[in-house]
Amino acid sequence: MLKPLPVSTFTLRDIIENGCLYIDKTQYIYELIRYPKRTYFLSRPRRFGKSLLISTLHEIFRGNKDLFQNLWIHNSDYEWKVHPVIRIDFGQNTVNSAEKLEQVIDYYLEGIAEEYGLTIRGFDFQTRFQDLIRQLARNNQVVILIDEYDKPMIDNIENIPEAKRIRDTLKAFYAVIKAMDAHLHMTFITGISKFSQVGVFSALNNLVDLTMNTQFSSMLGLTDAELRRDFAEYSTALASELGYTSEALHGEIRRWYDGFCFAPNGENVYNPYSVIHLFFQRRFFNHWFATGTPTFLIKLIHAQNYDIVQFDEVMLEEIDFSTYELENLSVIPLLYQTGYLTLKGFTQELGKEALYTLSYPNYEVEHAFRSYLISAFSYIERTMARSYLRKLAAAIKEKDLDQVFSIMSVFFTNIPYDLQLKYEQYYQSILYTVFMMLGLDIEAEVETNEGRIDAVVELSDHILLFEFKIDKNAQEAPQQIKENKYYEKYQLHNKEMTLIGANFNSQTRTVDDWISETN
């Protein structure tokens, strides 16, 4: 009989006592806790197991060895010493001001003190925090576990002045941890974002950041080996139900949910939330993406006029991952931290800064995120956008360019008047994303010996070369393609080529003129 899947359970005790499936990560945890006097930080996207990790650490430091009977750590040489634990989950409360954050902190401190039969004193949350640590440490050094450390700031990210006040309150909170180091055995802090150490953890100069540590890159998420081993029976049942072979099903799971990588030379991992819900609901769907809408990210991409075409392959230096701060929000590091982009390559030349390549992790993230981008940039409701996409796919298949540009214009006409978008990149980005959503082989800004082609779409028997203009004459575009010999790069493909020029009218926000020539 299959074990129940932990679809809505995020605490170790509930999972074990209810006989649910648990992926044994305790060997990784052992490597973390075998040495005392460590202050760790780990950021991972939402729904990747951070809260379960905190719960597991809590049970270990409370000495609950019996709970781990069938897990790796139970038979290790870990000594299972009991430590008092201060556990705070900032994800449990809505914080809209620095004052509310102080109330939340005090609520947790009072609750922990009551749990241990203590009365804490102090004139503010910092002194009460110090007093709680000092009293708890009378029996043994204290362990501090902080989950979702960044949620109070993220909840107020669109109100930067208040977010900065909240950040300053958090800085004061973490300063206590450093000051009370003599009384602490270990501190473990998790969150989604990796704000710069200077901004939030300025006092924690002993912080060990595990976010891009190769040794622990697979501690959260599912490795391929874990998927094959622990979900074998579920896979067999689902493959039979859907009419797949076992390997065909595995390949589809990999395409949809694998591909996350969190460290140079780290192993790829599957999204655990999506995999669990795949087997629970028995269908492929955007399980993880549907749990959170990246509204703020879309607004930030809009505000910074970011070229969404670049999301297919972005290059960053290592320093770019550690300079994320409220006053200077950067799109790409934030997309990486939240899981919409992931590591796809890593190079480092002797004496030079490491260079990382980022891209979408898998089909689920790419397809769902592009859907949001189309709606956000074209201002079309997502269900309507999908309807237009189906019609557009049929028009392209029939090579009906009149219908293609008629449908494409729908994606532009809803752009508000006040945006005043008079640059080709915006319209080109929408067109590129639409074609990608159709599953077409498209390249943008393609380099040739003579310059760049705006876009190339390659069909099974045809190649379409696009050159875009804005508030100009579309007739100029095919001539530009021919004069610069853009087509020569594709002549060896032995396919018919059509040169297409299109003009975007920034006033009417439509494709008001287009021309095509067969080459």
What does it look like?
The protein is of the alpha/beta class and 519 residues long. 39% of the residues lie in helices and 17% in strands. It contains 18 helices and 13 strands. The protein has helices spanning 12-17, 26-33, 50-61, 98-115, 125-136, 151-154, 160-179, 224-230, 232-242, 246-257, 272-281, 295-303, 331-337, 363-378, 382-397, 401-413, 424-437, 476-483, and strands at residues 38-43, 85-89, 142-147, 184-191, 207-209, 314-317, 342-347, 355-359, 441-448, 451-458, 462-470, 496-505, 510-518. The strands form three sheets. The protein has a five-stranded parallel sheet with strand order 2-3-4-1-5. Strand 7 (342-347) and strand 8 form a beta hairpin. Helix 4 packs parallel to helix 5 (125-136). The longest helix is centred in the first third of the chain and has 20 residues, at 160-179. The protein is elongated. The chain starts with 11 loop residues before the first helix and ends with a strand.
Give the SSE map.
Blueprint: H1 12-17, H2 26-33, E1 38-43, H3 50-61, E2 85-89, H4 98-115, H5 125-136, E3 142-147, H6 151-154, H7 160-179, E4 184-191, E5 207-209, H8 224-230, H9 232-242, H10 246-257, H11 272-281, H12 295-303, E6 314-317, H13 331-337, E7 342-347, E8 355-359, H14 363-378, H15 382-397, H16 401-413, H17 424-437, E9 441-448, E10 451-458, E11 462-470, H18 476-483, E12 496-505, E13 510-518
Helix pairs in contact: 4-5, 4-7, 5-7, 9-10, 14-16, 14-17, 15-16
